[in-house]
Each structure stands twice: as C-alpha cells, then as structure tokens.
Amino acid sequence: MLPSLLSPLGSLWPFSFGTAWRTSNMSVTYIKRHRMEVDLRRRPPLAPRLPKDYRLVPWCPALLEDHAEAKYLSFHCEMDAELFPCLGNPEGCRKLMQDISAGRGFIAEATWLIASYDQRGGWEPCATIQGSRYDATYGAIQNVGVVPQHRHRGLGAALVSAALLGFQQVGLPQVYLEVTSQNVGAARLYQRLGFKRTKTIYKTVEMALS
Ligand SMILES: CC(C)(COP(=O)(O)OP(=O)(O)OC[C@H]1O[C@@H](n2cnc3c(N)ncnc32)[C@H](O)[C@@H]1OP(=O)(O)O)[C@@H](O)C(=O)NCCC(=O)NCCS
Prior knowledge:
alpha+beta, Aminopeptidase, eight-stranded mixed β-sheet, 5 helices, disordered N terminus, binds coenzyme A
C-alpha cells in the first residue's frame, strides 16, 4: 500500500495550483486538467497484452463490487480522490459504479476488470476501467485505475486498449478522457496509446480549512 500523499491537515499540496479565494474556514483551489482525445480511424487500437497470472474480465453486473473495490484501492491515496471525494472511500466507489453502470450511455464493451491470480488459487480484482457514450461520435473513458502493487506491468495500457476496442466495436470513432495535469505518468500512458491533448480545463475544489 502506498503511503497517503496528503498532509495530515488534508491540504491539497502538492496538487494545488493556487488558492482562488479564502474565507475564515474555506478555500477554493483550481486544479488544472487536460482533455485528451484519440481518433480510432487514424489510430486503431492495439490488442491488449497482459503478463502471466492476469486476465481481462468483461463487464457483467455481478462484477460491480469487484470494480468498486479495484477503483477504491487504485484511487484512495491519489490526487484524483481530492478532486472527486467519492474515490476516497469504498461506499463512494460503489455508488459511483452503480451510477456509471446504470447510466444511459454506459458501454459494457468498453468496461473491463483485470483480475490477478492469487497464490491461494483464486482471483482478485486489481484494475478497472469504464466506458460511456458521450454522443454519436465520442466515447468517454472514466476512472482508469490499477491497484498500486500491480502497476508498471502493462495493466494500464491493457485496460485502455481493451476499452478502445470496445468503443470501436460499438461504432464510436473518437474517445476522450480527462487527466489532472500533474498526473504525468497517466498522461504519458495515454499519449503512448495515441491520445493527444485537446483542451485545458480548470476544476474548482472547495476545501474546509482546519
Ligand atoms: C495511471 C495508471 C492507471 C497506470 O497504470 P500502470 O498499470 O502502471 O500502467 P502501465 O504499466 O501500462 O504503464 C506504466 C509504466 O510502466 C511501464 N511498464 C509497462 N510494463 C512494464 C514492465 N513489464 N516492466 C517495467 N515497466 C513496465 C510503462 O512503460 C510505463 O512507463 P512510463 O511511466 O515510464 O511511461 C496507474 O498508475 C494508476 O492507477 N494511477 C492512480 C489512478 C490514476 O491516476 N488514474 C488515472 C486517472 S486519469
């Protein structure tokens, strides 16, 4: 388990980009994010490749809890849990998965879990991705997450590739996602898979001062 990246005071440092305003007990901070897009007609997705002892599991509703667990373990110590507090607790992740999978645009074909073989002979969830239809052209990737002890083995690339193939399968030619600008590892992963930055967005985060 990674140590928490947050200070004991719960400050957004080192992820904040300037305090916009501050009252006696609240502050609002802008967080810089990038929209990144890939055009699957120009850059067809690659077949996902996984190391030994891992497998990609297609979406089915019975896997909701596994996706929620993988999401929580992937995000709760990360900067995105400051931006989206639901990512910082198991119940929030479960509710988010319920909302995403019940949403009108949800795309099962672009939603994948990676399970890792454990030494006791079972499988445990270790990575998750979800896809939704934004409009007739664009698919949206949500919440790519790999549990810390399974990172740097190609699981992130495999998840995104599997999702891109799913978008292609349902006829969506373009795919976008958003990434926090300081999340350079994630941005590099998306770039490697053909995504390009198209827009910068500033998200406001309201924090209670202690
Ligand atoms: C971003 C994230 C999904 C990447 O997952 P990952 O499984 O580590 O991704 P990959 O293994 O495919 O790629 C990561 C790096 O490992 C390297 N790698 C891949 N396979 C490898 C292997 N077998 N041996 C050594 N390195 C390897 C990749 O080249 C890449 O290197 P780079 O960072 O220098 O470009 C993961 O760090 C994560 O879940 N972060 C927290 C949640 C988050 O921020 N999600 C993104 C929200 S937009």
